[in-house]
Amino acid sequence: MADLSGDSSGLHRIVTDLTTAARPRYQFRPGPANSRLAAAVLREGRLRPTSDLLADLFTVRPDDGRTRFLPKERLLSDDEKALAVAAFERAVRAGDMTSGPQIEQFEAALAGHLGLPEVIATSSGTHALVIALLAVGVGAGDEVIIPANSFAATENAVLAINAVPVLADVRSDFTLDPADVATRITDRTAAILPVHLYGKLADMPALADLARGHGLALVEDACQAIGVTGVGAHSDAVALSLNPFKNVGLCGKAGAVVTRGAELAARCRVLAYHGFAVGRKNVKTADFGFNARIDNTLAVIGLDLLPLAHVNGLRRTWLAQRYREALAPLAEQGMLGLPEFTSDHGWHLFAIQVLDGPSRDGLRDWLAEHARVETDVFYPVLTHRQHTPLRNTAFADVRLPVTEQLHERVLHLPLHQHLTLAEQDRTMEGLYAAFRAHR
Ligand SMILES: Cc1ncc(COP(=O)(O)O)c(C=O)c1O
């Protein structure tokens, strides 16, 4: 009997069993999100027949003949919207809008969900990064090694505390290359900050070895990787984002620092709220801190949305393997590079590489015009190429061959938890048509 949780490895297992028609007996670990997942996928302890399960998982909706990348009015399902509105109303009526009793409850729920002991819910993933870096002891002038292909928040968190971002190259899976990181370590390096870009876990065991060997802190930017197996297992601290565009998105800006260290967690709590001693408002114990705790209104919403996280993760994981399976012939012909279907991926974004045929931008335009499929590129400008003063100073001599090549080729296909199968079909058919048109 498989003892499963709905983290990325559990979801990978379920999808693999569905595609191979394996029907082992499953037992899910306790927890609200696992119970929801079990109710969605099991009948008498075994996986439901695939077609039956998918019919419930992917609702059919009126199709308007186009596939949008990430329609903001569909970030939440109608049921999720109703839950969120009711939760918000309860918090407002009770007057518990900024601080309030549900923050601790949400932190406990998120800790249980992640299987990690300490959660400090914050006002954003960006603030979670800043707080985590300060809490592990990064200070002014310290170097922090990061990738150059992330959202600006990664380097901004380093710069905000007057530390120095040092860019290292990535592997073909878009995450930090430990071998290249090793060459960037100096006697000023204080921390390594890998980003689990698009939801793919960086090589944490190798990065943890490096950090240990050089006495460095290791902080994970897991803002795109909530629910990915292995997050938090090797590092000092993790930053998560819970903004509405993420896999677990609340109805506003929110995030969390997650850690296995109780002392580190205590430092984060102090930093997240004006330097006040925990539980003693207006009594400072640190020189400074931020106004960076999550709002109670969002914690209340989070308590109601968190139980749906694993079912939403299953949708993403199914869509990812479906893209891979359908696009495999284009990959075999050398047209596209596809992400591996691995158990350490949360499928926040589905990134392909355009290798042959039309240019990446040509393909993007063709899909928009002829197939009515919207694609996107994350992120359009690499950190060292942003037009800021750093471009001519700290980043002037930066060369990142793999990052730069991936950046020219990468294209993101629509993948969100409420994408319909018809919308995905249109995307895949559009890709085949585009390559036929460019033969
Ligand atoms: C990789 C990465 N790091 C950091 C952040 C910052 O998170 P937030 O928007 O919650 O501040 C995001 C999300 O926007 C992100 O994708």
UniProtKB/TrEMBL annotation:
<dbReference type="InterPro" id="IPR015422">
    <property type="entry name" value="PyrdxlP-dep_Trfase_small"/>
</dbReference>
<dbReference type="InterPro" id="IPR015421">
    <property type="entry name" value="PyrdxlP-dep_Trfase_major"/>
</dbReference>
<comment type="similarity">
    <text>Belongs to the DegT/DnrJ/EryC1 family.</text>
</comment>
<protein>
    <submittedName>
        <fullName>3-dehydro-glucose-6-phosphate---glutamate transaminase</fullName>
    </submittedName>
</protein>
<dbReference type="Pfam" id="PF01041">
    <property type="entry name" value="DegT_DnrJ_EryC1"/>
</dbReference>
<dbReference type="InterPro" id="IPR015424">
    <property type="entry name" value="PyrdxlP-dep_Trfase"/>
</dbReference>
<dbReference type="GO" id="GO:0000271">
    <property type="term" value="P:polysaccharide biosynthetic process"/>
</dbReference>
<dbReference type="GO" id="GO:0008483">
    <property type="term" value="F:transaminase activity"/>
</dbReference>
<dbReference type="InterPro" id="IPR000653">
    <property type="entry name" value="DegT/StrS_aminotransferase"/>
</dbReference>
<dbReference type="GO" id="GO:0030170">
    <property type="term" value="F:pyridoxal phosphate binding"/>
</dbReference>
<keyword id="KW-0663">Pyridoxal phosphate</keyword>
